[in-house]
Amino acid sequence: MAGLDVRGLSVSLFTRGGVLPALSEVSLSVQPGRTLALVGESGCGKSMTALAIMRLLPEPPARIIAGKVMLGDTDLAALPERRMLGVRGKAVSMIFQDPMSSLNPVVPVGQQIMEVLRRHENLSGSAARTRAAELLTLVGIPDAEARLDEYPHRLSGGMCQRVMIAIAIACRPAVLVADEPTTALDVTVQAQILELLKRLQAETGMALLLITHDLGVVAEMADEVAVMYAGRVVEQGPVDAIFAAPLHPYTRGLLGATPSGGTAGRHTRLADIPGSVPSLAELPAGCAFAPRCKLAHAACTAQPPLKAEAPGHLAACFAALGVPAHAA
Amino acid sequence: MAVATPGLFRRFARNRAALLGLVILVAVIALALAAPTLYPRNPLRIVGPAELWPLQDPRFPLGTDSIGRNIAAIIAHGARATLLIGLFASLTATLIGVTIGSVAAWFGGWVDELLMRFTEMFQVVPGLVFVLTIVSILGGTVQNITIAVGVVSWTGIARLTRAEFLTLRDREFVQACRAMGMPDWRIVLAEVLPNALPPVIVLSSLAVASAILFESAVSFLGLGDPQVASWGRLVGEGRTLIRSSWYISAVPGVAIMLMVLALNLIGDGLNDALNPKLRNR
Amino acid sequence: MLRLLRRRLLQGVPLILGVIIMNFLLIQAAPGSFLDVMSAESQVSDPAMLEQLRVTYGMDQPVWLQLVKYIWSVARLDFGFSYRQNMPVLDVILASLPATLVLMLASLLIALLLGVTAGVVAAVKVNTIWDNLLSFLAVLFFAAPSFWLGIMLTVLFAVKLGWVPVGGMMSITASNQGIVATVLDVLHHLALPAMALGLFYAAVYARVMRAAMLEVLSLDFIRTARAKGLGRWRVVLAHGLRNALLPIVTLFGLQFGTVLGGSIVVETVFSWPGLGSLMLDSVSSRNYPVVLGVLVFSSIVVILVNIAVDLAYLRLDPRIRAR
Ligand SMILES: Nc1ncnc2c1ncn2[C@@H]1O[C@H](COP(=O)(O)OP(=O)(O)OP(=O)(O)O)[C@@H](O)[C@H]1O
Ligand code: SF4
Ligand SMILES: [Mg+2]
How many independent structural domains does chain C possess? Predict the structure, then answer.
């Protein structure tokens, strides 16, 4: 099975007010059977990244202007839409934050599952129905056969998310993109859904790109973490390294950590950092985090490159990369 | 929060279609005002040869009708009737609608229930059938047509007013007025109504358009006042001559269409300008 | 479902009662007695007969009793007697009804097909030349009076091109040519009036459909459908349309009365022998029983259609069904 390898992905929003850099040179990779958590404050471009991978960006205004989305040897970013149709829901699937509104309210859930089977697996009528019932059982919905004819509004949020997952894994995708799959759910249900995702990943060996706000989820699920700020990946590395020794001041802020190391805990939500995310229209030159950064210095008016501090642990920060404050 | 907030016109004018509508409306109003000067004599008087096509004779730029009346004069004078009937019918509808809607919402309970049933009743009666019934029983005078059209056009306004009132009734500033001991009627007239009106105005402007369509249909059917120059009537009269002189029907129909078009565009523009939330639709 | 049907029918009763009372008030408001007019129009001239009518209509009784009697007779579907046709009013109406229904259905079919298609295309191609063109056509037809449109269509397609007849419902020769030929003949006659009436509603539906479709296309489940790898049109038709049609269905019910009114005008343009022609004839000849009969009857039809629409809605939107 192929993993996902995003290289230098840039997305711009072509708005009336000008061209906004929604994503700048985002690089990520997830290996089969592994989980990458994508974290960052609201508006930093996590969903945008996910949609760009799926080629589901709202066009206009958004457009991929550079970079590759490699799935094995195929660059999804360069695929014509017609061939991309064969990838979505088949090789790469996605689930969303709000499971209730993500299902069509006037179509029974069974049909919504069967639709993807018909589309990619060439299954017809009764075969698709049987398989749909199997899938519902697989995602932990009891009495699956009867549930097929249920409409989404009759199911709970957790059930709906299970249905969404059933749709997403129906064709055994190589990559599953999950955009805050548990944010809208009750705590107990959250744990069940995460458990389910883990189990399915273990069974199918799919790569999981998990977008979340919840450090508990990161600790529970992730092998690696990528931290985004203002449309860029500012730090990336193995989950243990990130928690134990965050390099980027932004990451430390998110973890509620002190610069001297050691984090506040793995079971909290992202900490609040003083100041607010700059709007895409008025990003400062150089490091976008500078206005909020206690370590900011003269060098930070340039764009810090994403560099490896330790093997596999990268950060984009002059301070973290050992440029001393008095250097410039 | 008065209706004429600054920038309202600017927002309105940004909508080019709405501006076009306004231009057409102003032109029609100008024509209506100028009609007595342009054509001081009775427009329904025979002034030339019959069935003269438009642009054939400079005296009759829009041609003459089946018996030799000046179509331009009928159009000019017809603009007066059209505008007046449209305006007053819409005013009637707005008055009824706002009254019923606000009373229903303000008092609630069985008053609300009763008035809403009453509104529903007028919703199920086919408008034109009702207008024709009135015309048939009470006669096709301008006043009767105006009132009948007003009476079939108010239900939407009543529902909207009611909805607006219901949301406004519980707002802080209304509560504050209550606490200050302001009498109900003053709260309604001075505080609630002005805030409820903007969306209602949109419906009222659209009601003018539909009133004009109603009036033209009644006149077209030959049930209006024969002494009054009317666009709809002229369309109807030209109908017998479509083989030779179809322009007689075409010209006044274009006038009706432009007028209604203008009012619809203005209504849409007002809607966008008054409800900025929906502007991007 | 049945419970809802019963509830809605019961709710319709006071509405109909209201319409009947309004009708009655109209009769009372008429200048001079209803019978004076009828005698003046020489529909009834025999004084003895007039006297008998006065008793039948209860004109010699107190107003409230007249009202009760009137309600009672309408409740038994007795709308009175038309001297012009020499038939009970109900029979007169029922005789004209089929032609009107055919015209209305054809118009609504045209309106749905054209309007929904145009609205969907405009929404999918929003802010393109297609959208602009369709929206322009929609505002145009939204403003064109149907009677005028009918005349202009006649000038073009019947007079100039000669493709279709100028008016009427069937050719004189058609009745003895077998069922297929007759149907074709009626359709041939139906084309223009149905267009004249239908284009306005096509414009209405196009506007509503465009707005509804734009709204629906921005919803989350559309993104899900795309994430499944469905093509754009499949997403629009299989997932968007079902949802966006709901407001159209509501509108269909709300506007049924207007369509009925519109058909009155269009019928006169095309000499279509339906309720509209009947109404106009009765209005011109002050044949009050028929005029009032049409008013009550059409109101009842509108109420029934709206109940039907509610039931259809129930089938289309499972969320409502749950309540
Ligand atoms: N149509 C648009 N016009 C302008 N800016 C937009 C548009 N769509 C998205 N953006 C901006 O793009 C940025 C990225 O948004 P995105 O949804 O990816 O954030 P996110 O990280 O997923 O946040 P959240 O945690 O709230 O889901 C945001 O700053 C948003 O304001
Ligand atoms: S590059 Fe400079 S401003 Fe940006 S995070 Fe590092 S120290 Fe702070
Ligand atoms: Mg997001």
Answer: 2
